Amino acid sequence: MMAADFFISFSCEWLKRKRSLSSVLIVIGALFTPAIVFASRLFHRQQLLKLSAAAGFWESLWASSWESMAVFFLPMAAILITALVTQIEFRNNSWKQVLTLPLHPLTIFSSKLAVIVLLVLEFLVLFDLGIYVSGVGPCLLLPGVPLPQSRLPATTFAAGTLRYFLACLPIVAVQYLLSLRFKNFLVSVGVGFMAWVAALAALSSRWVFLIPHSLTILVYLEHDARKRSVPPALDPLWVSGIYAVAFTVIAYWLFLSRRQKG
């Protein structure tokens, strides 16, 4: 029965997301970097000829594309998507109606959270597709430029994307907590942005992982040849799992408090 209720609630939440700007945000944010790479390679044909023949074509493209995504776009997307989806009820003043539905509070809470998580995953998948198109698209459009000679390491890239997705979950959990707690959209977004700034400022510390918004950056820097940060004291993904569970539990407790207060 609860599974059926969850499916119905999730379907409703998925439809309600159309009232927000989350879909527009996903497309613009996910394709911004690939679009820049695509345009740049169209205007640098000679450089592209050398790149397409290089053995590490895909690895180089992947690393350069993910830098801006891991450091900026993914944390910002998690912050904004969570706020936009959660704010639908506040904006329409409909939380009271939602909380009077004959559904278990866990069903309401988890269905909205599931929509947010799925949107973040959609964001990452679209970004990966954008990377692929930015790699082969210019070669197809420019005469005399061959397709990349190296094999696409799809399994490796999928595993890497999964790591970034897991590292992003604590940001979603924290922002979900904030968005449930504060009616003002700017409060949750502002706190998230300040946490991200604090993470950047603390990258030189081994304890930067204590800031949830730093974890996607730390995952990227794990394989950073330039060593721009001190290795964290704990594995970012272990910390990610702990934070995601802890902040989700706290967020649910806040949600129950809201329901009890009416």
UniProtKB/TrEMBL annotation:
<keyword id="KW-0812">Transmembrane</keyword>
<protein>
    <recommendedName>
        <fullName>ABC transporter permease</fullName>
    </recommendedName>
</protein>
<keyword id="KW-0472">Membrane</keyword>
<keyword id="KW-1133">Transmembrane helix</keyword>
<feature type="transmembrane region" description="Helical">
    <location>
        <begin position="21"/>
        <end position="43"/>
    </location>
</feature>
<feature type="transmembrane region" description="Helical">
    <location>
        <begin position="185"/>
        <end position="209"/>
    </location>
</feature>
<feature type="transmembrane region" description="Helical">
    <location>
        <begin position="237"/>
        <end position="256"/>
    </location>
</feature>
<feature type="transmembrane region" description="Helical">
    <location>
        <begin position="154"/>
        <end position="178"/>
    </location>
</feature>
<dbReference type="Pfam" id="PF12730">
    <property type="entry name" value="ABC2_membrane_4"/>
</dbReference>
<feature type="transmembrane region" description="Helical">
    <location>
        <begin position="113"/>
        <end position="134"/>
    </location>
</feature>
<feature type="transmembrane region" description="Helical">
    <location>
        <begin position="63"/>
        <end position="86"/>
    </location>
</feature>
